[in-house]
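4.2 Preliminary Data

To establish feasibility before requesting continued support, the project team ran the inverse folding procedure on a target of 248 residues. The structure was first converted into the token representation described in Section 3, and no sequence information of any kind was made available to the design step. The complete token record follows.
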């Protein structure tokens, strides 16, 4: 099996994993999450919502995440991914330190973790796009980044729709004018709220914060690598379809 076949096989396995239905543990977690959400101060909900809204606006229209396209045109996909994994290690370390620090500081610093972690995630995604040689000044590239973000942190049902869009990006990107930030923020909150809210609990906040941030960056890294693999396959006019049906 050559590297291209291996990557395509890995993407297929990843897609099947992404499309798995929620197990009993996820349903139990969801119930606990709903209960905890009702106990969280309204101020916390407002901070989270506003942070996500500002992140979306900055991604689409701002300049704080801008990076120049890397000179990687002569590199193979494998070589580009090696650079991405190096970059992920750096961003993950930053996220772990930040999560432990804010988690140890109680409610106020715990709330500060939400916009800080969002910024780390966005900077990583812009770095990934840059390594692949895409110009992140282009609106469509910023939009793609937000779709990758949603693919990493959404419910199974929403992921199916987002994955379909990413899988046919060149065909549909001209029809996309914006991203629904309200849907994005609700999906994101539902995905991470339970573990991140535990970060606000005195005594365990630092441990939870570091652990959560490490795993959330890992999840984002895996998603970004596979999303850009799909795009690279399509760009090279590889026509073999990778099934979305998890039962195949």
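Position-by-position output of the design step:
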């Amino acid at each position: 099996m050559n590297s291209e076949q291996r990557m395509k096989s890995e993407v297929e396995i990843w897609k099947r994993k992404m499309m798995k239905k929620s197990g009993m543990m996820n349903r139990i977690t969801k119930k606990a999450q709903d209960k905890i959400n009702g106990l969280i101060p309204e101020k916390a909900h407002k901070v989270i919502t506003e942070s996500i809204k500002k992140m979306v606006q900055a991604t689409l229209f701002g300049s704080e995440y801008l990076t120049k396209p890397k000179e990687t045109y002569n590199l193979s996909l494998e070589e580009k991914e090696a650079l991405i994994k190096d970059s992920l290690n750096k961003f993950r370390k930053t996220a772990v330190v930040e999560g432990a620090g804010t988690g140890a500081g109680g409610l106020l610093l715990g709330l500060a973790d939400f916009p800080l972690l969002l910024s780390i995630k966005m900077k990583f995604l812009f770095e990934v796009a840059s390594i692949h040689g895409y110009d992140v000044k282009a609106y469509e590239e910023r939009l793609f980044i937000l779709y990758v973000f949603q693919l990493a942190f959404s419910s199974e049902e929403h992921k199916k729709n987002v994955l379909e869009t990413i899988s046919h990006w060149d065909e549909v990107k001209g029809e996309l004018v914006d991203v629904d930030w309200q849907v994005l923020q609700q999906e994101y909150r539902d995905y991470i709220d339970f573990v991140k809210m535990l970060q606000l609990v005195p005594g365990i906040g630092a441990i939870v914060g570091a652990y959560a941030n490490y795993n959330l960056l890992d999840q984002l890294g895996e998603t970004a690598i596979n999303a850009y693999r799909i795009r690279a396959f399509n760009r090279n006019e590889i026509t073999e379809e990778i099934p979305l049906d998890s039962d195949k």
